[in-house]
Design goal:
This protein is mainly β. The protein has one helix and 24 strands. The strands form six sheets. A five-stranded antiparallel sheet has the order 1-2-24-23-22, with no helix packed on it. A four-stranded antiparallel sheet has the order 6-7-8-9, with no helix packed on it.
């Protein structure tokens, strides 16, 4: 299905039409993938065939195990390099190259032919144990003028460790980050190596949106519901780390003004819808209950009071509640889990049927997820590149209309029209 040549490595795999309704391999579908009113062909069997962990019922039709769709356009994936070291985040630079974080605490620049720079120095030390390390990153909208980079990382501190946000200037020779400064720390700190969240984006007003996790432990779970803690939240801060103007809890007693939404478990995916401008997120559930949510300011997304997952050891969480008044339902959920990481809406023109579809990196049953979304509901699901056996970690859209994704195994993929 693919060939390997000498470095730089190029592995190509062509999407070939197939007829199985389970959607388990690359194939075709009849959906235009646009925001038009035509409905996608979702008559195929759901891609998920495993037994769910619980007998919980969805709150509405199509909230889970939606019908499968198939991409009709011939597309290919090409591995530009396999030499990254545990890459975690990727963003495109104005000149078309990519700035990539590596979990151990370095950044690299990747050219469109896969050539990698030497590790970029000057980055504060990270705790890369467990799920920690150098995590998501984004560039200042005025990067051409100021060369500023913003990133998330796990930082050792008194009382344990935490999710931190830093900024610095990429030097003119691209060898180091200058004047690196930590601008925000998601407190309280906790002695855990799990659930840091770690994605970061700019909004249209020039502020930063940052995701955090609730650090996984039973004792810290309730802090997702606390407005006086930064754990299990989507935050909105300025480039100096201060609460952004217009946040929903500004001026409210016993509430942190940087909080944008709450009730999250471990958010590793953030993406802006290219037409509506809505913020969407993906988060890890426990044993079952991975979620896709459309984020609205001030809303409570339920964890751990409601969930479609169960404890890893088997018991129900919060008495098995999946719905409660005042708590948002996920747009979509998976049971068993897919472990959703980075995600992006397809805004290119090269493959029109993908327009405004959400592509989500899956770490479990490693593959790339394609979700067709219409009217803020998922109307079709496709699994791509399962045969690659790569844990897709983050993904972005390139200026050329192709998708670029990094995997835990060190690969950088280009996915585009054949």
């Amino acid at each position: 299905m693919f060939t390997i040549s000498h470095l730089p490595v190029y592995l190509s795999f062509l999407a070939i039409a197939c007829n199985d309704g389970g959607g388990q391999s690359m194939g075709t579908n009849a959906d235009s993938g646009t925001a038009a009113t035509t409905s996608p062909d979702s008559t195929g069997a759901p891609v998920e065939t495993r037994k769910p962990n619980s007998d919980y019922k969805p709150a509405f039709p199509g909230q889970t195990r939606i019908g499968s769709v198939k991409t009709q356009t011939a597309y290919e994936g090409k591995v530009l390099t396999s030499d990254l070291k545990r890459p975690w985040g990727i963003t495109q630079m104005p000149d078309g190259r990519f700035l990539i974080t590596e979990k151990g605490g370095t950044m690299r620049i990747a050219a469109t032919d896969g050539k990698l720079s030497n590790p970029i120095t000057g980055i504060p030390a990270v705790n890369d144990k467990g799920q920690g390390g150098l995590l998501g990153l984004t560039l200042d909208p005025q990067f051409n003028n100021n060369r500023m980079v913003y990133w998330v990382f796990s930082e050792n501190t008194q009382g344990g460790n935490l999710t931190a946000v830093a900024k610095g200037k990429l030097s003119a020779d691209e060898t180091k980050i200058e004047n690196a400064t930590v601008i925000y720390r998601a407190t309280p700190a906790h002695n855990s190596n799990l659930h840091y969240g770690g994605r970061i984006l700019f909004d249209k007003s020039g502020n930063l949106v940052v995701s955090t996790g609730e650090r996984s432990d039973i004792e810290t779970r309730p802090l997702s519901q606390s407005l006086d803690a930064a754990l299990g939240k989507v935050l909105r801060i300025t480039t100096d780390g201060k609460p952004a103007s217009g946040n929903p809890f500004a001026g409210q007693a016993n509430a942190r003004p940087e909080i944008y939404s709450y009730g999250h478990r471990n958010v590793q995916g953030l993406a802006w819808h290219p037409e509506t401008g809505d913020l969407w997120e993906g988060e890890f559930g426990p044993r079952g209950g991975d979620e896709i949510n459309r984020i609205q300011p001030g809303k409570n997304y339920g964890w751990p009071a409601i969930t479609y997952g169960i404890e890893y050891s088997g018991p129900a969480i919060s008495g098995g509640a999946t719905q409660k008044e005042g708590m948002e339902q996920p747009v979509y959920y998976w049971d068993p889990v897919v472990s959703p990481s980075g995600m992006v809406f397809y805004s290119g023109d090269a493959i029109p049927e993908w327009k405004n579809n959400l592509f989500v990196c899956a770490l479990n049953l490693p593959h790339l997820i394609r979700l067709v979304i219409q009217g803020n509901k998922v109307t079709g699901e496709e699994r791509l590149f399962e045969s690659e056996n790569q844990r897709f970690r983050d993904i972005t859209i390139g200026k050329d209309g192709a998708l670029y994704a990094v995997t835990d195994g060190g690969r950088l993929y280009r996915v585009g029209k054949k």
